[in-house]
Design goal:
2 domains; 12 helices
């Protein structure tokens, strides 16, 4: 039985062209970008060219890109770096209840260090309400950190509206764009964000490499110290092969963005129509008209997520019940709790399907066929 991977929101397979670019860099770029000899200059050029490609993908300047070890490090640098750089100006931070744990756990740690954290609620579509944000904003707010697109239900947050409000406020504005990057157009000036984090492994690049956008003159204290790499913002010899591969993945993602959006919308239609035709009782979590196209979170009536996931895996279908960063845990999703409350049956019967590279209509149709068979068997339908 062929395995079908429908968990691209957790991580994605590397694109063959990305692998080729990385292998070429591993074989041919041996120098340290900080060295002044020829091999160092070759590495520096590869680094600079990659930085330019990635900066252009979000309409930023080259020197506003900081390379990191991944999305979690980028979030941590944004949050701790801002809090420590600006703590004399205030100690209030605003975030949301549906953030990735890289944001939530960073905020929890800051709360033990004297910072006050406001966690904005979301509606039953998983979206922060702008009026709630306005009510939470204080004179001593130094950081607002709200994700662009949710990794569990795909909900797109009102980042542009919040950014407009903060234009006349002192707070630094950070968005975690890890799940949104590569599938929706991003312009940091239009969004009016000061910091934006993302990673390569969600867009068919390698794991262990990410970036943080830092708008010029935005206060930020380094979290990793040592050498003067990344303009003294992130010490450590740059991972040139992974950065080159990251840039290649970005290049491909930018070229294929519109095609992927249409393709994933088509996959969603296949799944929804097949479930409906089979008489399966289900409900989509989140508003699809305001959602990332690759993430589809569905609640199935009379199902239990543990046995559901096991049966799907045995049928060769890889999916998730929530964020992969809580792997091994079947605790209720904090995102679904925020959306529906801690007593909702959706906490125990919801599955996330996420689309990406390597899928086509035939594969998704086959996956849906197996899905229907499992649901009917487990519900005795």
């Amino acid at each position: 039985m062929d395995e079908i991977y429908l968990d691209h929101a957790a991580t994605t397979p590397m694109h063959p062209a990305v692998i080729e670019a990385m292998v070429d860099a591993l074989q041919n770029i041996a120098g340290n970008p900080s060295s002044i000899h020829q091999q160092g200059r070759t590495a520096r050029k590869a680094l600079d060219d990659s930085r330019q490609t990635i900066a252009q993908s979000i309409a930023a300047q080259d020197d506003e890109i900081i390379f990191t070890g991944g999305g979690s490090e980028s979030d941590n640098l944004a949050i701790f770096g801002t809090a420590y750089a600006r703590r004399k100006e205030g100690r209030h931070i605003i975030t949301s209840q549906v953030e990735h744990h890289a944001v939530l756990h960073a905020c929890e740690r800051l709360a033990t260090q004297g910072f006050a954290i406001t966690y904005l609620p979301v509606n039953d579509q998983g979206v922060v309400q702008v009026d709630d944000f306005k009510a939470a904003l204080r004179d001593d707010t130094i950081l607002v950190t709200i994700m662009l697109g949710n990794n569990e239900v795909g909900a797109i947050q009102p980042i542009k509206e919040i950014g407009a409000i903060l234009e006349t406020h002192q707070a630094t504005f950070h968005t975690d764009a890890v799940q949104a990057y590569g599938v929706m157009a991003i312009d940091v000036d239009e969004l009016k964000v000061d910091l934006l984090s993302t990673t390569a492994h969600k867009i068919n690049g390698p794991k262990g490499i990410g970036m943080l956008y830092q708008r010029k003159n935005t206060p930020l204290q380094a979290v990793i110290v040592g050498g003067q790499q990344e303009r003294k913002r992130r010490a450590g010899t740059e991972n040139v092969p992974s950065i080159v591969a990251f840039a290649k993945a970005v290049e491909i993602a930018q070229q294929q963005m519109n095609h992927k959006q249409a393709l994933y919308n088509g996959f969603e239609k296949i799944v929804m129509e097949a479930l409906t035709e089979a008489g399966i009782s289900f409900e989509v979590n989140g508003e699809r008209s305001n959602s990332l196209p690759q993430v589809l979170n569905i609640s199935f009536d009379q199902m239990e997520v543990e046995s559901f996931l096991v049966n799907l895996d045995m049928a060769g279908i890889a999916v998730s019940s929530g964020s992969a960063c809580t792997a091994g845990s079947i605790d209720p999703s904090h995102v679904l709790v925020a959306m529906f409350g801690k007593n909702s049956p959706k906490l125990r019967n919801s599955i996330r399907f996420s689309f990406g590279y390597g899928l086509n209509n035939d594969i998704v149709t086959e996956a849906t066929k197996r899905l229907v068979e499992i649901v009917k068997r487990l519900t005795n339908a």
